[in-house]
Design a protein that fits this description.
The complex is a heterodimer of chains A (512) and B (338). With 512 residues, chain A is α+β, with helices and mostly antiparallel strands. Chain A is built from 2 helices and 20 strands. Chain A has helices at 3-30, 35-100; strands at residues 104-108, 111-115, 122-136, 147-161, 165-172, 179-190, 193-201, 230-240, 245-252, 274-281, 295-307, 317-319, 325-328, 344-360, 363-380, 383-401, 427-439, 458-471, 476-489, 501-511. In chain B, helix 3 (72-80) packs parallel to helix 4. Chain B has helices spanning 3-25, 41-59, 72-80, 93-103, 115-118, 159-173, 180-192, 201-210, 221-231, 255-261, 264-272, 277-285, 293-298, 317-325, 330-334; strands at 30-37, 63-70, 87-89, 121-130, 150-151, 216-220, 236-239, 244-247, 251-253, 289-290, 308-309. In chain B, 47% of the residues lie in helices and 15% in strands. Classes of the chains: A alpha+beta (512), B alpha/beta (338). The A-B interface holds A 79, 82-83, 85-87, 89-90, 94, 190, 192-193, 240, 247, 249, 275, 277, 279, 301, 303, 305, 348, 350, 373 and B 1, 3, 6-7, 10, 13-14, 17, 21, 24-25, 149, 195-196, 198-199, 203, 207, 211-214.
């Protein structure tokens, strides 16, 4: 019962008591009362009744007024609640809008990045650290010293500006020196048209294009020693048909076989620019054919018609995968003080490299052939010796994940990661490679006029390697390779072979 | 091997590749971004279809127009900050002026490049009240009565809110004994009755219509008509005040963006076509006042005649913006967040 109702009830009860009293009084007076007194009482009763009616009216008015006030108050409170809710809603929207305009910071196995809200501007910090051990098992003279070394120490700053402008800067501090490994800018006009300028990997060798962080073996195989590494130039390239075809056409300063331009001071190698072109097909990349989706094949080439000199011969020395130098062209002969008898590039040089890979399930295979055909000259006391010679190499490299991960050309994700006190050992992969490099017989012909010393330089090297990769996680791995190289020739006497090379290589690799 | 022959093969390869790619490079693909203010969503959804049809017939090219909507001032700031708008269709010229002064995105004379000060349509400010007008709101004076809750967006971010503010200011000035001081006092009282400030006109409509807050919404005329159309006349009704303001929402090509994207021609045609009879029909159907005389006459009954002041009565947008809405201006002086 409300207060108003209680007041009405009390008023009603009062009125009944008053009426009963009046009736009793009238009864008493009826038996002997005066008429004046009765009249007076009647007047008083009338007055009381009027007062009661007035009171009831007032109570009714108060009830109505109270109800209206309550309704207005309720409406006001509801509005206030709605306003508060709307303000919260607007604050929430403003917070979301603010969050949408905040830069995005990411940290993960692939590095650290700072990204604008629309993703059009990104800066990434990445890095590579390779700490190697080399242990030589052979007894060749002179002894190769077992050693630990920092093979790669490469912080990388890369990113994208305004959605289509890419850049990358990578110095390398390994080996007690500092070089600029990569420094380039690229404009992605379309997926099929990307222009890159600066210093970068010349897109030619297939294994060379594998990132240092994703290498299956500690060192690359023999075909790679014939093909260019990093160089300064301009290239147009891109993906066609959703990546099923990739191409690149570029012009570069030119580098000697297997070299980077920093080995020659990052300047032109000879008298003319090198052209490089590559086309690579992955015809089943976007198909439903699971077995063939990981098949890729292509061909690449470089060409230059340049003139070297005895001061800048433009010719390399070659190393086995365990990084032992095994071949060099003739250099200057100290006995002929007035004449520099070094062999040098003198004319055209053509490198051609058909290449392929295949990845299915945990299995991977990479095959590569490289051939260098080049014009050489050598000035001797007997006259100028000029000729065209070939050097060729090939390799077949196989890999298999024992822990069931999917193999691919560009990295992988371990099914588990190694950690203390938790299950999971990371990923294990076994690898094997067979590769060979063969030098043209004509290099050794001509006796003292030959481009190469036939007594000390081998004519062929055949190398195989087996290894194990333990991936603790996406960024950390440990590798061990056994390398064995056999040589034809180069044993310091005609008919004698240089002794077999045998080494164990290890690597602790950090890459993010 | 003949090396010259090999070089020739490389050249042929590159040439063949170039020829193969050429058709892809020239494939016609025109996309425009129209950055607009809050209540024009429906208008430009309709108009974009009309223009795409027109452009296809005229050039054979396909044009796709993307829309972005929000508070006019906020939208201008977004474009200055880098949103690549080919065209802007904002609530007031002051916001496009900001693109000139703060972003150098288009020339100073932008407003003279298209007819009618680059405003292909106009509108005005009206009151939207609950059905039956329970608070008896008839004119600007009723908005400052105690207990009247007024919904309007924030003049700092919304072009429509600036028109609302100026219309109220103009009414106060025209009252007997009206002065700058009395107009300022009126505006202070008006915003004291505003419980919540949205960033844009569409947000304010949501507050009033969807959330049921307030007794009166100061609204674009088209927004008020649209609310009635969507909610039905049994929920809300329009009150025409004794005086309002002629709102002239302008349009402009953002030259710097359009030149960079190679879309200047189509962007210009996109805006010019707004003046065509076909577009003016669409404008009128979306409750904006058309400037084409014939179309305006056809829809005259839809738009009651009002006593209207213009922005020129305030000395133009540059002066008005600086005096009233810039940091430290009159609005900052009279408004205290609740």
């Amino acid at each position: 019962m409300s207060s108003v109702e209680r007041q009405q009830a009390r008023a009603g009860a009062g009125s009944k008591i008053l009426a009963a009293s009046v009736v009793a009084l009238l009864g008493l007076t009826a038996t002997g009362a005066h008429a004046d007194e009765l009249s007076d009482l009647r007047q008083r009763l009338d007055a009381q009744e009027r007062q009661i009616q007035e009171l009831q009216q007032r109570l009714g008015q108060r009830e109505a007024a109270g109800s209206t006030a309550s309704s207005a108050q309720l409406e006001s409170q509801q509005q206030q609640i709605k306003v508060l809710e709307r303000k919260l809603e607007l604050n929430d929207e403003a917070a979301k809008a603010a969050a949408a305009s905040n830069p995005v910071v990411k940290a993960g196995p692939k590095g650290f990045s700072l990204q604008s809200p629309d993703g059009a501007n990104v800066v990434k910090l990445r890095g590579t650290l390779h700490y190697d051990g080399r242990y030589f098992l052979d007894d060749n003279a002179p002894d190769s010293a077992d050693t630990w070394l920092l093979r790669r120490v490469r912080p990388t700053l890369e990113g994208t500006l305004n959605d289509i402008f890419d850049f990358r800067f990578t110095p390398d501090f390994a080996g007690g020196k500092t070089i600029i490994l990569d420094a380039y800018g690229a404009i992605r006009f379309r997926p099929w048209a990307q222009l890159t300028a600066g210093k970068f990997k010349v897109p030619v060798g297939l294994e060379r294009l594998v990132s240092g962080n994703d290498m299956k073996f500690i060192e690359r195989g023999l075909p790679t020693v014939l093909l260019p590494n990093r160089d300064l130039g301009v290239a147009l390239g891109g993906d066609i048909a959703g990546g099923a075809v990739n191409y690149s056409v570029g012009v570069y300063n030119g580098v000697s076989d297997g070299s980077s331009s920093d080995s020659q001071g990052d300047v032109e190698l000879d008298s003319d620019r090198d052209w490089a072109a590559r086309v690579f097909f992955q015809p089943f990349l976007n198909s439903d054919n699971f077995a063939l989706r990981g098949l890729g094949f292509g061909v690449a080439a470089t060409y230059v018609n340049g003139t070297g000199s005895v001061q800048r011969p433009g010719l390399p020395s070659y190393r086995t995968p365990d990084q032992q130098s095994f071949f060099r062209f003739r250099g200057d002969n100290a006995a002929t003080a007035d004449l520099n008898e070094a062999t040098y590039l003198d004319g055209e040089r053509l490198r051609v490299t058909p290449q392929a890979y295949y990845y299915v399930g945990s299995f991977g295979a990479l095959a590569e052939y490289a051939r260098v055909s080049q014009d050489l000259s050598r000035q001797t006391a007997s006259g100028l010796h000029h000729g065209n010679v070939d050097v060729s190499a090939w390799q077949l490299a196989l890999s298999y994940f024992l822990t069931g991960e999917d193999a691919s050309f560009k990295g992988f994700k371990p099914n588990s990661t190694f950690s203390i006190g938790r299950p999971g050992w990371g990923a294990f992969e076994i690898v094997a490679r067979y590769n060979q490099l063969k030098l043209d017989d004509s290099l050794f012909e001509g006796g003292s006029l030959s481009f190469v010393d036939p007594l000390t330089q081998p004519r062929k090297v055949t190398e195989y390697a087996v290894g194990l990769n333990w991936y603790f996680n996406e960024s950390f791995k440990w590798q061990i390779n056994y390398e064995n190289a056999k040589f034809d020739g180069g044993g310091s006497a005609l008919g004698r072979d240089r002794g077999d090379g045998e080494a164990i290589l290890t690597r602790l690799a950090v890459g993010f | 091997m003949n090396h010259k022959r090999f070089a020739g093969r490389i050249a042929a390869f590159a040439l063949g590749l170039g020829v193969a790619l050429t058709p892809i490079a020239h494939a016609a693909s025109v996309t425009l971004l129209n950055v607009s203010y809050d209540p024009t969503r429906e208008l430009y959804e309709d108009y974009n279809k009309e223009f795409a049809k027109f452009w296809k017939a005229k050039t054979g090219d396909t044009v796709q127009i993307r829309q972005s909507h929000g508070g006019s001032g906020k939208q201008a700031r977004t474009v200055i900050d880098g949103l690549p708008a080919d065209v802007v269709t904002l609530a007031l010229a002051g916001d496009i002026d900001a693109l000139v002064t703060n972003g150098k995105l288009l020339p100073v004379n932008w407003q003279s490049r298209l007819p009618h000060n680059s405003s292909p349509y106009t509108s005005t400010i009206v009151f939207l009240v609950r059905k039956g007008n329970p608070k008896g709101i008839k004119d600007w004076g009723d908005l400052i009565k105690p207990g009247v809750s007024v919904i309007t967006p924030n003049p700092k971010t919304s072009g429509g809110a600036r028109w609302n503010y100026l219309a109220g200011w103009a009414w106060a000035l025209k009252q007997p004994g009206g002065s700058e001081a009395s107009a300022k006092e009126y505006t202070r009282k008006l915003f004291k009755n505003v419980p919540v400030l949205d960033t844009g006109a569409r947000g304010a409509t949501t507050t009033f219509v969807q959330r049921g807050i307030g007794d009166v919404l100061l609204a674009w005329e088209n927004e008020a008509f649209l609310s009635i159309k969507e909610l039905g006349p049994d929920k809300v009704e329009i009150v025409m005040p004794s005086l309002s303001i002629l709102a002239e929402p302008p349009v402009a090509v953002v030259d710097k963006v359009a030149l960079r994207r190679g879309t200047r021609e189509v962007a210009t045609e996109y805006l010019k076509h707004l003046y065509s009879p076909e577009a003016q029909e669409i404008i009128a159907r979306n409750y904006y006042r058309p400037i084409d005389a014939q179309v305006a006459a056809k829809y005259a009954s839809q738009f009651p005649k009002l006593d209207l002041v213009t922005i020129e009565d305030f000395g133009g947008w540059a002066k008005t913006q600086k005096e009233h809405f810039a940091d430290g201006g009159v609005f900052d002086q009279i408004y205290a967040p609740q």
